[in-house]
User: What shape does this take?
Amino acid sequence: MPAPEFSRLLSNLLRAGISPRHARRAVEELEAHYHDIVEASIEEGASPADASSAARRRLGDLSAVQAAMEAQPALRSWAW
Assistant: This one.
């Protein structure tokens, strides 16, 4: 299973008016967390595909992350 589309999430957040600083930080943290979960699963004996699938399940739906960030006015760009 391929990695989540983190670049797509970043683009969606920026289009929604989330400040670049907040958008980049959130996506970088999600991506790092994803890779940490995959790495830990592989170390525990999971196949790369199973590890990726487990990491995607643990991260959840990225559109929910996007919606939660969009609901926070403090994360908006001042130019928005």
